[in-house]
Each structure stands twice: as C-alpha cells, then as structure tokens.
C-alpha cells in the first residue's frame, strides 16, 4: 500500500515562527497614520494591539520564538498532515505529484487558529479582557472565538451580513465558544448605524466589518482589536504551515516545484509560501501561485498604492494592492476572499514578480471543488476551492507537456458549513462575476486611491 499522509511527530513542531521581513528584496514601505499620513510609530498602534504584537509587526529578527502556552494549544491539531492526492492525480491522468497541507483538521476547521491562539495569548498577557474583530466567511471569527474561550477572554465578532445569512452554523460555532456575533453593518457601532441609514440593505464587506471592530476597540478601554489576515504579525504566525511542509517534503526526499494557495488578505497563502521565499531567493525555480476570485481581483487588477484597510478610514494606510477601501464586492460564497486589499508583504512580492497571481470565477472554483471531493473525499471550503482550481490547471498542464512536477497546495479549510453554496452550484444557480476595468477604475476613484 502506498503511503498517503506524512505526519511529523509533535516534537518536530516548529518552535519559532519564520519572519520574512529580513529576506525581502527591499524593505516594506511604512504604514502611515490615518490622520497625519506620516509613518507610524509603535505608540500609535497601542490603543488597538498589545505591545508584543506591535513588536512582531516591525521586527527584523529572522525568527520569533513561539511561547510554550501557544505550543500547548497548537498541539491539539499540529503538526498537520501533508497528504499525497493519489486519487486526484489518477483522475487527472497527470504525471505531477500533488500534495496538500491539510489545515482543515484544526478545531475550527481552518488555518486561522494558527494566529488567533497567539493573538489571544498576547492580549491576555497584557491585560485585555475582550477582543473585537470582523469575519467574512466566519472562519476567522470562529478561530478567534475558540482562542478567546481557551484564554478566558470575551469576544465580539462583526460578521459580514451576507455571510451571516449564508452561513448560520459558522455563527453558531462562534456562539458555542462564547462569542457575541453581529451582522455587519450593524446598529452596534456608530460606523454601522451610519451605513445602514444610507443603505438599509447593504450586504456588508470586510472593510465595513473592520471599521466596526476597530471603532468598538477604540471606544472601550478593556478591549483590543484582532485581525485575521493582512498584517505582518498575522502572516508570521501562519508560517508554521510552510515550516512544517518543508520538513515533510524533506522526509519524502521531495522539493516543491509549484506552491499554490488561495488569497483573500494573504494569511493562508503566505503561511504556506513564505518559507519557500528564501529558497527562491537562493536560486530555487519554485513557482509561488496566489489564486483569488475574479469577483474581487485585488492582485490581478488592483492598484499597488497606499490605501486604508477599512471603509471608514480608521486604520493605518498600507502600501498594498487594493480595489479601494469603499469597494463592496459581489456576494460570492467565498466570503473569506472578498477583501479590497492584500497583505503588504504579499503585495510587494507580487509587484517584484516573486509571486504569480491568478483569478478564477466561482463556478470554475466549484468545478474543481467537486472533482476534489469526489476523488479525495473531503469537501473543501469555497475559498480553498480557488487553490484547487489552480492545482488542477497546473496538473493538466504537466500532462499536456509531459512534465513531472511536485505541486504543493494549502488546503486552508473544509466546507462543512458551506452547503448552501454547494446547493446553489449543483442547482446551476451560482452566478459568475468578473470585475471590468471600468468598475475597478470607478471604485479606486471613489476611494481616492492613486498610484504611487
């Protein structure tokens, strides 16, 4: 019988996160204060984040030790398996070897607790009693609820309204772990109330939900803000994925030719891909492919420019690929990929050609999801399905060219709470959205975003 899963022993779990900042081709452009538009200093972020996370955001240390209390919680599901997709390979008739890093085995069912656990830990350590956050598809909200429950923190989640309605059991999962969950825009904040006054039927966006969570944290002394993607410290925590993957490939005597992940803000993709950036910098030909939806084509059609991370312009300005902070994407089912911007680290790697972005329609992604579910047996989240689409396309290309390659992708989460999306797909009721250049130019113009 062929070996299918590569399992690292717990003692091989990474004891430090990998910090890519010292290995970038050039330093990131600094985040700017939302009021003065001058470079931020650590004290500017103190009302929102604990100092330990602020330090990680700016650190130039190549490694950041993982606290023992975090490792203890990680051990509930880490190390995660690296799985050979034998059945998918056979179905495609490809000479490619396909592996996936299964982050869906975590208690909340995705990669998100890799950062929610340390964020809750550091906030608890520095005296916060409540965390406020946003969530799109609900994976981040459920992960932070899980982590807050573990460390005895209260948790408030502003969930993008369309996802709140599409994914009721994600909401219930958060509530099981003790979180208060509100559809965003909500009447709980001045930001949400103002938006509802102008548009009572607003479906919401991650930009709006971020504004609500930031407002909540900024107006309560006992509360800090927690973000599930985009920021440097979030990507740092996620590198346990790629660090484990490299060890597992070494155990097999393999090296990756292609690394693929889906992209909303960048945490899942970068968690897998960043440990391979150093390899690429040292001359490895490994390709790093970031898959996003055509309905929110930030990397493939956005502008690399300074922009706010939220709709109400309360967050710092970040140099990133953006569609404009006022952009409200169509209500596709991959709610975790519906963000107007991307991580500054990922954006710079795309701008410099280190990472290749691709975009897929949601029907193309669900086509791939069903192929994967019928061959490998696991129903993927709609977000993950974009990565699987990229994998299948690469594997078919290997077949056409007669090339053997090792393809590794991030299985960011299962789709057990996404049955409404699959129901629509099977019924043929899933629309595709492709943003035109005119629509994107208007969105950028409305947000006042210009190049440079």
Quick recap:
This protein is of the alpha/beta class and 452 residues long. The protein contains 19 helices and 15 strands. Helix 12 packs across helix 13.
Model description:
By secondary structure, the chain is α/β, with parallel strands linked by helices. The protein has a domain at 68-109 and 233-447: Rossmann fold (3-Layer(aba) Sandwich). It is 42% helix and 16% strand. The chain contains 19 helices and 15 strands. It has helices at residues 42-45, 51-58, 68-74, 86-92, 113-125, 139-151, 161-166, 168-176, 190-198, 206-218, 232-238, 240-252, 267-281, 298-301, 344-351, 362-376, 382-401, 419-426, 437-447; strands at residues 5-6, 16-18, 63-65, 82-84, 97-102, 130-135, 154-160, 180-184, 223-225, 258-262, 287-293, 303-308, 317-322, 355-360, 406-411. A 7-stranded mixed sheet has the order 1-4-5-15-10-11-14, with helices on both faces. Strands 8-7-6-9 form a 4-stranded parallel sheet, with helices on both faces. It has a two-stranded antiparallel sheet with strand order 2-3. Helix 5 packs parallel to helix 6 (139-151), helix 11 (232-238) packs across helix 13 (267-281) and helix 12 (240-252) crosses helix 13. It is globular and about 60 Å long. The mean pLDDT is 93.
């Amino acid at each position: 019988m062929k070996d299918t899963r590569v399992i690292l022993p717990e003692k091989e779990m990474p004891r430090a996160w990998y910090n890519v900042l010292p290995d970038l081709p050039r330093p990131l452009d600094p985040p700017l204060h939302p009021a003065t538009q001058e470079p931020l200093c650590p004290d500017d972020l103190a009302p929102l984040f604990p100092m330990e996370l602020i330090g990680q955001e700016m650190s130039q240390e190549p490694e950041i030790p993982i606290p023992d209390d975090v490792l203890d919680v990680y051990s509930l599901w880490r190390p995660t398996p690296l799985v050979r997709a034998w059945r998918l390979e056979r179905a495609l008739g490809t000479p490619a070897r396909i592996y996936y890093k299964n982050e869906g085995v975590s208690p909340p069912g995705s990669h998100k607790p890799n950062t929610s656990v340390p964020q809750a830990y550091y906030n608890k350590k520095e005296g916060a009693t409540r965390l406020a956050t946003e969530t799109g598809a609900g994976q981040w909200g459920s992960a932070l609820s899980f982590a807050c429950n573990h460390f005895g923190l209260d948790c408030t989640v502003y969930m993008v309204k369309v996802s709140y309605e599409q994914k009721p059991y994600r909401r219930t999962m958060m509530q099981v772990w003790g979180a208060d969950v509100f559809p965003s825009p909500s009447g709980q904040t001045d930001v949400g109330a103002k938006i509802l006054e102008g548009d009572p039927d607003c479906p919401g966006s991650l930009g709006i939900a971020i504004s609500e969570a930031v407002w909540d944290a900024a107006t309560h002394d006992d509360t800090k803000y927690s973000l599930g993607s985009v920021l440097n410290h979030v990507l740092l925590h996620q590198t346990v994925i790629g660090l484990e993957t490299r060890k597992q490939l070494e155990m097999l005597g393999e090296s990756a030719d292609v690394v693929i992940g889906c992209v909303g803000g960048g945490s899942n993709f970068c968690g897998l891909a960043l440990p391979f950036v150093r390899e690429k910098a040292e001359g490895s030909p490994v390709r790093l492919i970031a898959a996003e939806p055509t309905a929110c084509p930030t990397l493939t059609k956005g502008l690399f420019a300074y922009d706010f991370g939220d709709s109400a312009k309360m967050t710092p300005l970040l140099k990133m690929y953006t569609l404009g902070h006022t952009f409200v994407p169509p209500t596709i089912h991959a709610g975790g990929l519906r963000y107007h911007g991307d991580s500054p680290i990922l954006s710079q790697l795309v701008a410099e050609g280190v990472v290749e972005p691709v975009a897929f329609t949601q029907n193309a992604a669900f086509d791939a999801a069903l192929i994967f579910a019928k061959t490998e047996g696991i129903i993927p989240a709609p977000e993950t399905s974009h990565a699987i689409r990229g994998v299948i396309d690469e594997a078919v290309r290997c077949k056409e060219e007669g090339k053997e390659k090792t393809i590794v992708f991030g299985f960011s989460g299962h789709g057990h709470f996404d049955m409404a999306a699959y129901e629509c797909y099977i019924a043929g009721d899933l629309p595709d959205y492709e943003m035109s250049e005119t629509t994107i130019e208007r969105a950028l113009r409305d947000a006042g975003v210009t190049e440079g």
